[in-house]
Amino acid sequence: MKFDEAYSGNVFILSNPSFEDSNVVIYGMPMDWTVSFRPGSRFGPGRIREASLGLEEYSPYADRHLEEIRYFDAGDIPLPFGNPKRSIDMIEEYIDSLLEADKFPLGMGGEHLVTWPILKAFHKKYDDLAVIHIDAHADLREEYEGEPLSHSTPVRKICGLIGAENVYSFGIRSGMREEFQFAKESGMHMHKFEVAEPLKKVLPSLEGRNVYVTIDIDVLDPAHAPGTGTAEAGGITSKELLEAISAISNSGLNVVGADLVEVAPAYDPSEQTPIAASKFIREMLLGWTHKK
Amino acid sequence: MKFDEAYSGNVFILSNPSFEDSNVVIYGMPMDWTVSFRPGSRFGPGRIREASLGLEEYSPYADRHLEEIRYFDAGDIPLPFGNPKRSIDMIEEYIDSLLEADKFPLGMGGEHLVTWPILKAFHKKYDDLAVIHIDAHADLREEYEGEPLSHSTPVRKICGLIGAENVYSFGIRSGMREEFQFAKESGMHMHKFEVAEPLKKVLPSLEGRNVYVTIDIDVLDPAHAPGTGTAEAGGITSKELLEAISAISNSGLNVVGADLVEVAPAYDPSEQTPIAASKFIREMLLGWTHKK
Amino acid sequence: MKFDEAYSGNVFILSNPSFEDSNVVIYGMPMDWTVSFRPGSRFGPGRIREASLGLEEYSPYADRHLEEIRYFDAGDIPLPFGNPKRSIDMIEEYIDSLLEADKFPLGMGGEHLVTWPILKAFHKKYDDLAVIHIDAHADLREEYEGEPLSHSTPVRKICGLIGAENVYSFGIRSGMREEFQFAKESGMHMHKFEVAEPLKKVLPSLEGRNVYVTIDIDVLDPAHAPGTGTAEAGGITSKELLEAISAISNSGLNVVGADLVEVAPAYDPSEQTPIAASKFIREMLLGWTHKK
Amino acid sequence: MKFDEAYSGNVFILSNPSFEDSNVVIYGMPMDWTVSFRPGSRFGPGRIREASLGLEEYSPYADRHLEEIRYFDAGDIPLPFGNPKRSIDMIEEYIDSLLEADKFPLGMGGEHLVTWPILKAFHKKYDDLAVIHIDAHADLREEYEGEPLSHSTPVRKICGLIGAENVYSFGIRSGMREEFQFAKESGMHMHKFEVAEPLKKVLPSLEGRNVYVTIDIDVLDPAHAPGTGTAEAGGITSKELLEAISAISNSGLNVVGADLVEVAPAYDPSEQTPIAASKFIREMLLGWTHKK
Amino acid sequence: MKFDEAYSGNVFILSNPSFEDSNVVIYGMPMDWTVSFRPGSRFGPGRIREASLGLEEYSPYADRHLEEIRYFDAGDIPLPFGNPKRSIDMIEEYIDSLLEADKFPLGMGGEHLVTWPILKAFHKKYDDLAVIHIDAHADLREEYEGEPLSHSTPVRKICGLIGAENVYSFGIRSGMREEFQFAKESGMHMHKFEVAEPLKKVLPSLEGRNVYVTIDIDVLDPAHAPGTGTAEAGGITSKELLEAISAISNSGLNVVGADLVEVAPAYDPSEQTPIAASKFIREMLLGWTHKK
Amino acid sequence: MKFDEAYSGNVFILSNPSFEDSNVVIYGMPMDWTVSFRPGSRFGPGRIREASLGLEEYSPYADRHLEEIRYFDAGDIPLPFGNPKRSIDMIEEYIDSLLEADKFPLGMGGEHLVTWPILKAFHKKYDDLAVIHIDAHADLREEYEGEPLSHSTPVRKICGLIGAENVYSFGIRSGMREEFQFAKESGMHMHKFEVAEPLKKVLPSLEGRNVYVTIDIDVLDPAHAPGTGTAEAGGITSKELLEAISAISNSGLNVVGADLVEVAPAYDPSEQTPIAASKFIREMLLGWTHKK
């Protein structure tokens, strides 16, 4: 028996044992140092992996089987507790390595600030990048209580990096007045409250571009995702999020990377949030990465 | 440092420190003495305040900020445990004082029986009062197990007080046969199962009148509000309730008082019920009281 | 005082004390021996009974009262722990007795494998049987990990027994590729993702036939039924399931037996799952059995 | 198959099917109408029965097997919701019947007020009765908020009925000053904080008398019994309570009836409270009733 | 009705309405910004107040009644989220004001770092201060991940401020090797694992001095206090902590201030941790502050 | 960046990255197929690893630091769901490999049946093996419901394998009469109820022998370990178990392998059980394996 083969239960289901042979790399970012209300998303990646054991490996949505995709679950990036600055440097460097090795990075948060260093790495590689951002919160603050490195700021930073006109937000139902004003004035594309319908309308305009997709699990109503730090009533259903993921799959969009963030299992004794998240990861794997 | 200013964390977010300078008074009624199935709503007001700390102060639904409203969180009325009779007397007297001081009373339950003494006070001031009642339960019983003071009876009592034809119920999906018969025969307006659509149709007919709105959190499906005593499957979503609140805001209706009742936090370890309730209170503040 | 009359709290609300005088028999099957992911449905029947105490006895959906139906809650079949083979023999024999006594069997699971022996008994009595199957999972496996007696196989077995063309599945959103292929090739009728709409279209074609209905609670989204073993995001609402139950009631279909399975209370501290299940049982009693 | 035999899962494990052939009757009192802080003990008896399924039928403490005892689980007395007065009348009448039939009554609460009508019935039959009371709370109030029928008053009432000098309380760590003064002045025997040691010293003095034992589960520390309404830190361990039960068993005391009250399962998602309670009931059955 | 009197439910039970007339001030510090493992203690003070509603006002431990003490619950200090530096400045300034007004400060955390600014304020007033520190963790780190303001460092800082020989730690069962070495070499007094026995031995040596007492709730075993961030198995019972509090009360020690920290309610659905904490606060009020 | 180094969060804290360089191998056995009452221990190993992140790396009990031990966390053995026979074959083969490679096997369950194949492997290597068994349950059944492969039988099987006189059980408080009789008649050494005291007396007699130690977490009282399938009131404290582990460490006993089983996280929303288990694993690592 090879002891490397013994690993099971702590990686995403059907993970390919070899990094080299894989086109996709799943990785975790167990960080919640800047969370204001209810922290705990540092435990998200581990619980999504655990929940993946209950998944069917075939999807009737995508009519595809996980065995058709070669992905490697690389575990969690060992982020230093309480140090947002060094954490985001490590994430950027990590994504640099993945992109250099020509892998599709599929990240699991952790708090939403992690998307900022990921995009910094992508921006170095792709100069025509567009970002699809699915979330309850605008995340467009310039700073939070004087701190620019906050889980309320990543989308604002991304607008500065790649141009606000290349950022498409969906499902937004919470933020400061200034954030909504910025959305209006900056040229970014913000779609409030709804996700699937406006997304379908936007997708044709993104044809031919390299697109990164970031999903904050709190775009779901707390009924569908109680296990998150800043639950916000009035969200969409799991069904609508699955529909949105399928719409992207079916659009022929060139997705080059993606993440799913803010799963905080402590607030969800029923475990329905990591269970749903593992299904979304499966659909993202099957629909977005198969061309790799 | 003034010690009165030290208060934080136990009042609704951004509460104005002065009663006199405020147009609106938020108050709690920690009472669940007559609850038949699963008590616990006496802890509702405190948990709604706690959850309000996680709220954004701006609403993209109303495009208004809490700083535009001057409201004072007056804490809980000190109701005597286990004594429904004296409790409702105290509530009536309390509302009398608020109305005399020309404040908009925004109440948090507690069980639904509290709306009965509130309406007795309002009826003394307004002779053209209409009531909008949003709830899973008809609350039209004459008595419950021989007891007329029960959380199953307030709407029946209100019909007797202001005339059944002035009562508009929405979302009703549970009750005795006799209650549905009464609804039909008495001239009151009962809309079963749905809320937002029938409400929008009714609103124009209420123009120009003084209207009190009472919302029982269990109108929501238990998926959206598990933390309530008599959860009833088949309810509406948080989204629909937000839509209903907005519809009232946008109708120009003259709302003169309102309450939100039956949040029972013990049945909801995810805390999504008080989190949602605090958002509904914010929308009610922003949309219904700003003319004060 | 007669001690037999003392029984209360542990039978479904308003259960008739006499087996002989009843047309319907409610019974539990506390079995979860073959469950792969999260067991616990053996505690389902007891908790559904407990939750039934909070039900109104009148239904505004059916406009009928439980007193119009004569049903006897016969308790749980004493199934031998860990022995699927003997358990299913006992269930078959039990249903044989009920059918011989001309009762309408209304079963509560327990895992879904229980429906297999129930159908074996029904098949002996009715030669034109059709089955309506409402579920998140296809349950069409030939075996699970080499074991043909599994909660993933009952519908496949039923297809073999009564002919695949007599099986109508609704709401299916999870399964192996082979199961969906079997569904296509075998002539059975599988409707993916949705329940109420496709069901309404199918119902007229079943007129005049004897129909058995089996409902797996996990057809609901985990938001509406977190208390189940294999929660699967993207499901229907409680409202849609109530609509489906009503559609069957109103169709005049000749329902001859039914079950509701896979309630696993341990995963749902809010207890909304058994509370919803007890309401579905009420609607099934009122809508499907009243002709008995 | 006899349908009466089908009952399983909802009675205490190994319950004898026949009332007549049994020496002991287990019964539930699902009542919590007078509870001040956190209600819910009305669900206690059902959950203790459910948990009994996990019990070994043999006790290494008593070196006895449940098959050596003939007991009948008679279910719950159908107490009228919210009506303490009629409820206690029904309980008294119920115990009258049991005593007339020469059964050993073993009751499960429900709130502690139930012990008052039980003792009224016992007092009619036994004129030398002593009561052993094991509890965190003195329960010696004359009234609670003006109401003499309260779960804070039963022991005071019992003192009035059988003479304070015949009441022995153990483990008391909470009460009003007046209750502790009454304890001192009335001649009753109150042992604060500890149970097993003082009980062992008292037992010889009770030899030859007819003794009723009432145990409030909250005598345990909340660590050992979180599922109770008025949890009180600083209590005894489960081990000490088992030791106390054994001490009574081994003393040769003539126990004529007993109860275990205040299990409120909603506050204990781990279910350790009903699990422990079912074990205490087993030990009481094996140690106290076998002479019947 | 005076609206200031309406406050109830959100202050510690029986709180005196007047700051001026009170000798003791209870205050909350809702801060957990530096917590490494499981944050959430910012919600501690609010839940301790909520739980205090279930307390008896008389203590059989101290034989005293809360009415004998005049204390004012001043609410929470409005600490700025995520800003440890400004938070500790605000706490120090707050305590300065309380000491100037000659009040006994009784604080509720929040994380343990809050004790550092409290002690800075006390040190300015008292030059002979001794500190009794009851905790599972040594809290003697110089820094945590490079950060000197951490909930792992307060006791080290206090040693630097008032002299290690004036610090007495009890119950310590967790820390780095360096912390235990510092304890040995610095002259401070560390008692591992046990609390009540070593404390009783130490108390006589502190006679005549001004003493501050800080209790971290995690000194309790997680069985007795699951609701804390860094639960550490092998702790003491609630009973032993009550015994320790009583020992200090009975010693005649001149306690000049105290705090209880690290209650994090989210990890304790049974709520036994805030319930126990409110009892400890009661005993501290009754035993330590009555000479004020 | 090497991707193998990226692993973090899903292995036991400070795990050495190299199998070859390690003396100790930690491994998981995610199996609960034969559990009768409440399954779920298959999720134990993953949650113990997760909880280990909150551990201090130094132990004041052992005065040793985890860096002094070289251990490799090999992940979970990929046991086939629902197949006890093949699972135990795989475990035996796995342990064979570890022993051949001269590693100290430190296993995490899963259900207790896993200890049977482990001991079969050890028995092939050591002919003088003694077993220390710390548990609430005797586990001495010959079969359970006709099935010899059950979590109620492993100790009986081990008695047959290595001789009953070489088996030492501690803390036993539950079992069938036949099991206790077997314990008496077979020559094995069973110590009921207590652990630390009898163990200390037995240890000298085991000097010089090769000893395997198996700990079932349910030896703890449910207060200290609610997260287990067959919770049994009346157990020992975490403190006593730590004392027992230390006693073995200090005895100089030649421990050659060990396991900790039956952690079932679903029943413990406070997570205190995996938190405590990770501490026990730390103490076993530091005290029992350092001579490797």
TrEMBL record, chains A, B, C, D, E, F:
Keywords attached to this entry: Hydrolase, Manganese, Metal-binding, Polyamine biosynthesis, Putrescine biosynthesis, Spermidine biosynthesis
Q: Which Gene3D superfamilies match?
A: Ureohydrolase domain
Give binding positions for Mn(2+): H112, D135, H137, D139, D216, D218
Per the entry, the cofactor note is: Binds 2 manganese ions per subunit.
What reaction does this enzyme carry out catalytically?
Answer: agmatine + H2O = urea + putrescine
Q: What is its EC number?
A: 3.5.3.11
Task: Give the stretches traversing the membrane.
Answer: none
CDD domains reported for this sequence: Agmatinase-like_2
InterPro entries from the UniProt entry: Agmatinase-rel, Ureohydrolase, Ureohydrolase_dom_sf, Ureohydrolase_Mn_BS
Q: What does the function comment of this entry state?
A: Catalyzes the formation of putrescine from agmatine.
To which protein family does this belong? Belongs to the arginase family. Agmatinase subfamily.
| Protein name as it appears in the record | Agmatinase
